[in-house]
Design goal:
Blueprint: E1 13-14, E2 17-26, E3 32-33, E4 43-49, H1 72-75, E5 77-80, H2 81-89, E6 95-99, H3 107-119, E7 123-128, E8 143-147, H4 158-161, H5 164-173, E9 176-182, H6 185-198, E10 203-207, H7 212-228, E11 232-233, H8 237-242
Parallel strand pairs: 4-6, 6-7, 7-8, 8-9, 9-10, 10-11
Antiparallel strand pairs: 1-2, 2-4, 2-5, 3-4
Helix pairs in contact: 2-3
């Protein structure tokens, strides 16, 4: 099975209500933090959805979409909105991060999930690659979007990963931060072009890497240039704290 072949696990609804294709949920049984971006260091729960519309070679969650390497029947399950809300309600942690894959592929069924989480007193951050216009129902109080457009250096053609209409829609929400993964100062030049062209703000830069050593080295390559542009800088806390362990 290849990355482009269809997978039979489709979002459905049954007597339990809408169901989503979920890769994993974590943060209740073993507490963790949001590891990146504006909320870095905040206690967080994670709902990681399966499937993505991109195929970046440097992706660190290929088990959500790369069926040439992973078996979707082992890596994904269908869970009801009611079950996911109950799982989140079992923890006192306020922040729920909905990530992927690309979560907005399933956004029609994310609307009732979002409503249930907000009603339970949670606040929600969506981690998205910024290629899909968010449904108006997702633009609500208690919601933020961490939009991470993928540069060509991340291993995807920008003709697929940079969607101007979607970026403009996220800017218009007033609820988005734009988080770019970078490895070199040349990446920063490309980020500046995109930020200027689409009025992206605030801009956050995150060093690429899946080990503490690489993240530290890349941080030192980028730090002065990021500071000179007056952008925000974020590390990858889960890599530094938990050695990039899955489910942390």
């Amino acid at each position: 099975m290849t990355t482009s072949e269809s997978v039979s696990l489709e979002p459905t609804a049954d007597e339990d209500g809408p169901r989503l294709i979920v890769a994993e949920c974590f943060g209740v049984e073993v507490p963790t933090f949001q590891g990146e971006g504006p909320s870095c260091g905040h206690p967080a729960l994670f709902i990681r959805l399966s499937r993505c519309n991109l195929s970046c070679t440097k992706c660190d969650t290929k088990y959500t979409w790369d069926w040439s390497q992973f078996d979707p029947r082992k890596e994904a399950t269908k869970r009801s909105v009611a079950d996911l809300v109950a799982w989140a309600e079992s923890s006192p942690v306020e922040l729920v991060v909905i990530t992927g894959g690309e979560p907005l592929i399933q956004q029609a069924r994310l609307v009732p999930l979002l409503r249930g989480l907000i009603a339970a007193g949670k606040r929600v951050e969506f981690e998205t690659n910024g290629t899909i216009v968010p449904a108006p129902e997702l633009v609500a109080d208690g919601v933020r979007f961490n939009v991470s457009p993928k540069l060509a250096s991340f291993g995807e053609k920008e003709s697929k990963s940079i969607v101007p209409a979607a970026l403009d829609a996220f800017v218009a929400t007033g609820r988005a931060a734009f988080k770019f993964v970078a490895s070199t100062t040349a990446d920063l030049d490309r980020i500046a072009e995109l930020a200027d062209a689409h009025r992206l703000a605030p801009v956050w830069v995150m060093p690429e890497g899946t080990t503490p050593e690489v993240i530290t080295a890349t941080t030192r390559v980028l730090a002065d240039a990021v500071a000179a542009r007056h952008w925000h800088f974020t590390t990858r806390l889960h890599v530094l704290a938990f050695a990039d362990a899955r489910g942390r």
